[in-house]
Amino acid sequence: ILTGFVIMTYYLAVMAWSWFYLVKSPSIPWSGDASAYFYSNVLQISEGPMQLGGLVWPLVFGALLTWILCYFITRWGTKSVGAVVKWTVPLPYILLIILLVHGLMRVGSAEGILYYLTPTWDVLTNPSVWMAAYGQVFFSLSLGFGVMIAYASYVKEKEDLPWQATFAGLANSATEFFAGFVVFAVLGALAAVTNVSVSEVVAGGPGLAFVAFPTALAALPFAKFFSFAFFLMLLTLGIDSAFSLLEAAVTAIQDRFPKWKRGRILFWLCLVGFLLGLLFVTNAGLYWLDIVDHWMNSYGLVGVGLAEALILTFLLGTKKLKSELNEHTIRPVGLIWELSIWFITPIALTVTIILSLKGEFTNAYGGYPPLALAIGGWGVWATTIILALLFQKDKMKWLKLLGFLLIVAVILVGMFVSPAAAMGLFGSLVLIGGLLWLIIIDWMKRNKLMPKAVKK
């Protein structure tokens, strides 16, 4: 839940960028130099993360507008969400089809699609590629946020859960694969217009949606219409994700504090989220967004997925979980599911995280200053872990303090001594050891295995 809430604070800053472009679509002011327009006019970017500068007020108002929309959509519960989704989910598909048809009619689109479908096998040996892929899949499927758990509480008593989960995964992958054709058809057309190779116009992150695509759209006939449609699509997709993250946080707090009113919880979440998100609409906002996103969207979500698999496997037990799950589904889960959650998932995620962290120690991400990485990366990620522990129903016993202190020690080393040392193998082992210790103590308490001296 906390990971999703942190992601939402900067995710809505991206929505503010989309509002900016949507409003400016009738005049297409980026047609001359989309890169300069994005970084200078929209972001008003500073020289580095430590030069915060001031607030970029158009983006502040864009973020505020998105928070207000999320508040009212979520305010009336899942019925309101369902009514909104009926309109916001089909719209991006319609726009993607229009953009694909128009893109395929442009010179160079075939080269772009060929580039998209041509595999580069050597990158599969890079652990960071796998970590980025896991992070993307977790994000697009809303895994590790608590969103699926929150919405699952509204599911009917008997549903075909295996089929629903399989369909969601396949539909998500099919949509992303289809969207890839749209992206590279447009990039191929852009490469033909600028007389360069496709590889030279391919960009990731904000450079794709707010530099490459606006450049391509500005060169098309009916540019104003397609620009408006594209940024409207980004907004609808973003708002869909945003209010689902907000719903997860509201549901979790309601379950923890049933006497608290939903409206009041929602108001304070939106207010706190908006205030925290102001960092990402400063002149240095893009830098901090990149740093926090790198850690939370990859290590945060994947780490939560690993923790869930370990907790379900070793604390609840796969047999008990399987039995309870089959009581509430029409089609029972079988051996494949059991092997996945007990063996395949923990090993795959653990290996990927360890190998990716090894690369983090060698090269500082993005060339950012160590202090910025320690605060926006390691610090934010570790803070979510500590807050999650503090909000447990059971009060912390003195044995739990050991695991807590291990985590704090690694954070202090990362903040004030050496981020590289804190994120090295020893620091990672200490952190994992602290977390495992807390899990073991909880398991001993639940199974009444605590020593009598400790119980007193």
In short:
The chain has 20 helices and no strands.
What labels describe this entry?
456 residues, 20 helices, globular
What layout of secondary structure does this protein have?
Blueprint: H1 2-24, H2 34-42, H3 57-75, H4 78-88, H5 90-104, H6 109-117, H7 127-140, H8 147-152, H9 161-194, H10 198-201, H11 206-218, H12 223-256, H13 262-276, H14 285-326, H15 335-362, H16 370-390, H17 398-417, H18 419-422, H19 425-446, H20 452-455
Helix pairs in contact: 1-3, 1-12, 1-14, 3-12, 3-13, 4-12, 5-9, 5-12, 6-9, 7-14, 7-15, 9-11, 12-13, 14-15, 14-16, 16-17, 17-19
Mean pLDDT metric: 80
CA(first)-CA(last) distance: 33 Å
Q: Low-confidence stretches at least 5 residues in length (pLDDT < 50)? A: 450-456
Major β-sheet profile: none
Helix content: over 70%
The helix/strand order is HHHHHHHHHHHHHHHHHHHH
Report Rg.
23 Å
Proportion of beta-strand residues? under 5%
Q: Specify the structural class.
A: mainly alpha
How many β strands by DSSP? 0
Shape: globular
Quickly count the helices: 20
